[in-house]
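A quick aside before the break. I want you to see a complete sequence-to-structure record at least once, exactly as it would be stored in a machine-readable document. Don't worry about memorizing anything.
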Amino acid sequence: MKVIRTYRKGEDSRENTGKPPYSRLLSHILPLFKQYRYRLMLGFTALLAVDFLQLTIPRLLKKGVDSLAAQTATPDSLLYYSVFIIIIALAVTCLRFVWRYTIIGFSRYLERAIRNRIFNHILKMDEAFFEKRTTGDIMAHASNDLTAVQMACGMGLVAAVDALVMTIAAIGFMSMLHVKLTILALLPMPFLAIFTRILSARLHRRFNTVQEQFSLLTEFSRSTLASIRLIKAYTMEKFQTTEFDKLGRKYVKSNIEVARVQGLMFPIATLVGNVGMMIILFFGGRLVVRGDITMGDFVAFITYLYMLIWPMMAIGWVTNLVQRGITSLSRIDSLMMERPLLDDPPGEKVVSDKPVFSLRNLSFCYPSSNRPVLSDIALELGPGIHGITGRTGSGKSTVCKILARFYPVEDGSLFFEGRDVNTLSLDTVRSHIGYVAQEPTLFSRTIGDNIRLGLPDASDEAVEKAARLAAIHDDIMDFPKGYQTLIGERGIKLSGGQRQRLALARALLVDRPVLLIDDGLSAVDVETEHEIFARLKEHLQGKTVVIVSNRLKLLTMTDHIIIFEEGAIAGDGRHEQLLEENSFYRAMFTKQMREDIV
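That is the input. The structure line, written in tokens, reads:
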């Protein structure tokens, strides 16, 4: 017996938890830098112009102070210096707006582009991916992690460039005034570099923990809100609140650990700057007293050193932003490196009004399990209505999921119109299939929008026709707004049977050659179920229909019944034939008939 270990395929990319290379991380953002290069060039030109203008102010102060000290200053000369400084300040204001608009704006474009890529990538993933990752974790990647990347590529990048330019320029101007004094002022700098390196490593680890805690918190909130009826039914509000508080406390604790590291960076940078200022006051003051430098030189030197304190402080801030950005980009990279187990080859397009599925010795086990769910299934599913029944866990729903191409299968085990499905694109097969699950997925939109999901441009008449076929039209019209009724999160305003019939109407609207109903009428009463089936039998003439159900009264109306037992076919044929030849089917039928009489 062959059993497919489908989870092996692409396993390395998912299980590799090592730190990704920086070249791969940069590949996510560098194309965007290239795309917006002219915008960035304008922004950084404005930023450099701001730095240059700021660095000219100490030169003006030097001239003004020297003229005052030499008693050569006049009201006109002082007015000239003051007006010039005001003009510079106005120019700096305008240029700051330019670089903020261009560079910070770029970071938002980058955020949008990566978010779209994440969303598009997630839509391409298969069932195995969503079995492994929670919704909260995915949402954290597209929110918190993406914000950290945006900050690193926006304000982090600006601060880094600004700090680098200001540091080099300020040190250059200080050296022009007095080289030895500049060296003395920079003596504390190596200590700052050492502390920054130590703290950065700790920050990376702790911020990664913060993001993981945020994912857990988000997923807990989502699952609680999605299951609010169940929470209330079991009076679990207090328990859920307590659990949420525990997660919140862990998240806060992790953030406090990050804040502790961040809290050390800024004071250390400030301390280094102030130590440099103390050195200048002591040694520079002595130079002024001895006449080695002028009072204007001393004032300009202090001003430049004051400008140098910002880059020193920025080191800690930039390091924080960059480490957060790298950590979050690594998490996003791990998500983007996930690959679906299902191959999606271009494949030749198949167009058929009467498609046939052929299962040839098909065996299957789910990616997260080693236990075979299907074993050597041989089956032909062509035009007509096929009923599938069997005990719980016998593989009924798995067959529907495989036909709908939710999971991969081995080559040569599943054919569509005589062609191996692994040679056809996923869209080619799925575009022929309407699918109704036992637990239908509905959106917090109107009833009409939910029915139109597969055919957004469908007319009102087509929507109403599909609703009538699914026996849901009268229920819809009982609502004050009819098809414009908002049904709430996951269809909370509807009953279980109404949700299933709405999902059936959605599948009928697209009118595809294949219809899979995976126990999709289980919440509908028997009378309504028979009414629906009677309508469908006429409407679905010539189509391939597969209905999974344990209601044998329904299955007696099908053309062909297949019985599953522990992942294998235990019998197939028409109702009368199975009633005579299959003991399990006969016992099941007798039991249900007795229950109906009682």
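Two observations worth writing down. The domain at 21-336 is CATH 1.20.1560.10 (ABC transporter transmembrane region fold). The longest strand covers residues 357-364. We'll return to this after the break.
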